[in-house]
Design goal:
heterotrimer; B: 327 residues; alpha/beta; C: 272 residues; 79% helix
Chain lengths: 265, 327, 272
């Protein structure tokens, strides 16, 4: 346990050193939140309902994106790809920490820091704009929501891990991560806008991927826009994807790490 | 006609000192301590057309800084520089078209493409007419023996082959003044010789003025009739290579081959030993005492062979730099 | 005498254009020979564009109004955003390659070539692949505008002039980034901030609160980069804005050039 605390402390210190990095990251998150916020505010205009979402719900969705980005999507495990390519990995592989626990601990620090700041920023925006925020009415919702978020967090962890681990076999770590981790992820996960504002043919395709379970479905649960049965379905499918990516991550990692020494780092 | 004129050149750098650790980093945000480094401290010299001149000195002496000031990369802190009648730091196109800088560790060749691609690009950049380009290219390629590798990706070439192609890229526009910074660094002995031969030949054939910096004595001995020694930013010597020995070494070496083993006591009593591993024995001897000591040696030791030599340039220069002269 | 000077200038510009084309071809070759990254980025950019497009169509199909603009106008804003953004990325991408050039010291060798000092930093890494996305985009844009009857010829020429002015502004900003790179080599964040703020102009900037619009006009003048040409196209731009935009572009250009010269004078190369 102590090792993980030490690891967390070191990760936190790194943030202090790369302060500028972090500040700019927060700035960028804030800017992208503002953009979407104003966009939807403008779209709604005087309306109170649009495409199945109350104004307060849509705005809650946007706020929810900001929150879930830091909880689910915040991570340092993107560094893994770089470490594999640069040969730094040998040092870490030799340390007595499980590879998953190692990265997840680092991610946790990232998530905690980001959550803290996200809430801070959101509090400021909400205080200035005073718009109606949607809260679930039933207690079960909170519980189911929390459960789904936890699942989503782990799902994202393993998904991202798989992308990073590809670094064992290709040099194109940034390009692959950008394409899958940013473009596909953000659109299909509903991290720009709710998936169900898109045409239904596109929706059907997106629901076949694991992405909507990261942000979209948890938020739908929060907004109480899907029935208990559908929520259960979502959780089960999410769990299924989680198992798949956990299995993929584990196997690919073992395969890759075994041959890694052969490179000589 | 002086191609290069340098008067009282000074180049000082302000370097900020940072203490290690987190506290150091925080402190440096608030107040920065600057140190002034006098890279070049009042140097004057002039060079005529067609000369092949070497700047030698230990690492950090200011050779590269001087070269960069001459080529126009650095603004002098004080003093006057004129190259081909231009003020280098203005980097006027007419000036840039007539000079070239080659730095041992830096490349202009596109890494993933064959050298020929970079050559054609330079042809366009320097506006070299087609026939002149072909003629120059063929001559350089023949001189450096690189016909086979022109179409091979640069990243697949050996260091020696790459250096050759870098040289070609730098010489396509037939510069009047060529600045070479550590041209033989990192090369093996064979390549070093080839490089030196090329530079000598290029200077002879095209009458280009060549200034090179090096900390390899081999470069200097082979190439430079004239040598400028720079140490700690100051010009310590400017003249023919042969003069260094005469000016700075007030000693000579007596080199002996012994016919028989001799007691060390006896050897030690005759003079200061530079080197002794039987049968070779070398003494340091002050110039005035050479004949006297030579006579003593011949009298007291079983000498098979005896030579009186000038100390090697390397030794002299090394001593110059460490401020120690045999006295 | 004047004609001789003019001929000289034209000769210089055509030489620079030739060199730029040659450099770009080599950059493209380099990319193709080394990695698929270019292709992956291209796919990603196309996917992103299409997804956003579908999203806009879907939303506007029902909303019919965004901050007072009808759907066609919103689409137009989006298209102009992409045209300006991609053109600027296409032309001035060299900035992303500049940092390693400075850090390694190889930039010294470029400084001694008879080319403008900012040639390689800015124009040295043009992405041919972006060119392939620009052509269909322009075609679609023109077809969309003319077939929907939104473009009037006079407005269109004003748009082109303001588009050129936007390119000048983009150039000025990237030159500024290069100058910062020469001074501190810490430019990644600056570029990201630029991209993020520019992305805010995907939608008509009128949707933002006044304070934000001010920031977007006078710091990184995103409004002038994108919203202004778009509005000119629709014929809803006042002449004050037109003059103001040209003026701000010119001002930024002047300032950037001065700052770049200052940075170069401070530049002491990474010595041994």
């Amino acid at each position: 346990m102590l090792k993980y605390l030490t690891l967390a402390k070191i990760t936190f210190e790194e943030y202090l050193v790369y302060r500028l990095n972090f500040v700019l990251w927060r700035f960028r998150s804030f800017v992208s939140f503002l953009t979407l916020f104003f966009f939807w505010l403008a779209i709604y205009g005087g309306r109170s309902e649009f495409l199945g979402y109350q104004k307060s719900q849509m705005l809650a969705y946007i706020v929810g994106i900001a929150v879930l980005r830091s909880i689910v999507l915040g991570s340092r495990s993107v560094d893994l790809g770089g470490q594999i390519r640069s040969g730094e990995l040998t040092k870490i592989v030799l340390r007595p920490l499980g590879i998953f626990s190692f990265w997840f601990s680092r991610d946790l620090v990232d998530k905690l820091l980001n959550i803290f700041f996200t809430f801070l920023e959101l509090a400021i925006v909400l205080a200035i704009f005073k718009f109606p925020f949607w809260f679930p009415t039933r207690l079960e919702t909170y519980i189911v929501f929390a459960f789904m978020v936890i699942l989503a967090t782990f799902l994202y962890f393993f998904l991202s891990f798989v992308i990073s681990v590809l670094a064992f076999w290709t040099e194109e770590i940034w390009a692959t991560r950008w394409l899958f981790g940013v473009i596909f992820l953000e659109f299909f996960a509903g991290a720009f806008f709710p998936v169900d504002v898109l045409p239904s043919w596109l929706q059907k395709i997106i629901y076949l991927t694991p992405f909507p379970y990261l942000v979209f479905y948890p938020l739908k649960i929060w907004l109480e826009q899907i029935s208990g049965v559908e929520a259960l379905k979502a959780i089960l499918i999410c769990f299924g994807w989680l198992l798949l990516f956990w299995w993929l991550a584990k196997n690919l990692w073992q395969k890759g790490a075994k041959n890694y020494g052969a490179y000589g780092g | 006609m002086n191609v290069v004129e340098v008067k009282n050149l000074k180049k000082y750098f302000r370097v900020h000192k940072k203490e290690p650790g987190l506290m150091g980093a925080v402190k440096s945000l608030v107040s920065r301590r600057y140190e002034e480094v006098k890279a070049v401290d009042d140097i004057s010299f002039s060079i005529e057309e067609g000369e092949l001149v070497g700047f030698i000195g230990p690492n950090g002496a200011g050779k590269t800084t001087t070269l960069k000031c001459l080529s126009g990369l650095l603004y002098p802190t004080a003093g006057f520089i004129s190259v081909l009648g231009f003020l280098p730091h203005q980097r006027k196109p007419e000036f840039l078209r007539q000079i070239s800088l080659v730095m041992g560790q830096k490349n202009q060749l596109w890494w993933d493409l064959p050298p020929l691609e970079t050559f054609q690009l330079n042809k366009e950049i320097y506006e070299i007419p087609e026939e002149k380009y072909k003629e120059t290219l063929n001559e350089l390629v023949a001189l450096l023996e690189v016909e086979d590798i022109l179409k091979v990706q640069v990243r697949k070439l050996s260091l020696g082959q790459r250096m050759k192609c870098e040289l070609i890229a730098a010489l396509l526009h037939s510069p009047k003044v060529l600045f070479l910074d550590e041209p033989t660094i990192g090369l093996d002995v064979v390549m070093q010789k080839k490089m030196r031969d090329f530079i000598k030949e290029y200077n002879r054939r095209y009458k280009a003025t060549i200034l090179l910096t090096s900390h390899y004595m081999g470069d200097v001995k082979e190439l430079c009739r004239r040598v400028l020694i720079i140490d700690k930013g100051k010009l310590v010597f400017d003249g023919p290579l042969s003069q260094i020995t005469q000016k700075y070494a007030d000693y000579k070496l007596i080199s002996i081959i012994l016919a028989q083993e001799v007691e060390e006591k006896v050897i030690k009593s005759l003079g200061e030993i530079k080197e002794f591993s039987f049968p070779k024995l070398v003494y340091f001897v002050k110039r005035e005492e050479v004949s006297k000591i030579a006579a003593k040696v011949l009298e007291n030791l079983p000498v098979a062979d005896l030579n009186i030599e000038e100390p090697p340039i390397e030794d002299i220069i090394r001593e110059l730099f460490t401020g120690k002269n045999y006295a | 005498m004047k004609i001789k000077n003019l001929k000289l200038k034209i000769g210089q510009i055509s030489k620079l254009t030739r060199v730029w084309v040659m450099v770009s071809l080599r950059a493209a070759q380099s990319q193709l020979l080394t990695s698929w990254a270019g292709i992956l980025f291209l796919i990603g950019k196309i996917v992103r564009f299409l997804l956003f497009f579908v999203f806009l169509f879907a939303v506007l199909g029902s909303a019919k109004n965004l901050a007072g603009y009808n759907p066609q106008q919103v689409i137009l804003f989006f298209l102009v955003f992409n045209l300006v953004d991609i053109s600027i990325q296409f032309l001035f991408r060299g900035v992303y390659q500049f940092r390693p050039l400075v850090v390694s010291g190889n930039y010294d060798l470029d400084l001694l070539k008879p080319l403008p000092s900012f040639f390689r930093p800015i124009f040295g890494w043009t992405d041919i692949l972006d060119f392939f996305t620009l052509i269909p985009l322009w075609i679609y844009f023109l077809w969309f505008g003319f077939s929907q009857g939104i473009f009037k010829l006079g407005n269109f020429f004003l748009f082109l002039a303001l588009f050129a002015s936007s390119l000048v502004l983009g150039f000025a900003f990237h030159l500024f980034v290069c100058a910062v790179c020469v001074l501190t080599t810490e430019i990644d964040h600056l570029v990201w901030v630029y991209r993020d703020l520019t992305n805010m102009a995907r939608f008509p900037t009128d949707i933002y609160q006044r304070g934000i619009r001010l920031i977007l006009t006078f710091t990184i003048p995103v409004v002038i980069l994108i919203t202004v040409p778009a509005k000119a196209l629709m014929g809803i731009l006042s002449w004050q804005w037109v003059l103001g935009s040209f003026f701000i572009s010119g001002l930024f250009l002047w300032f950037s050039l001065k700052f770049w010269r200052y940075a170069l004078s401070q530049y002491s190369s990474a010595s041994s």
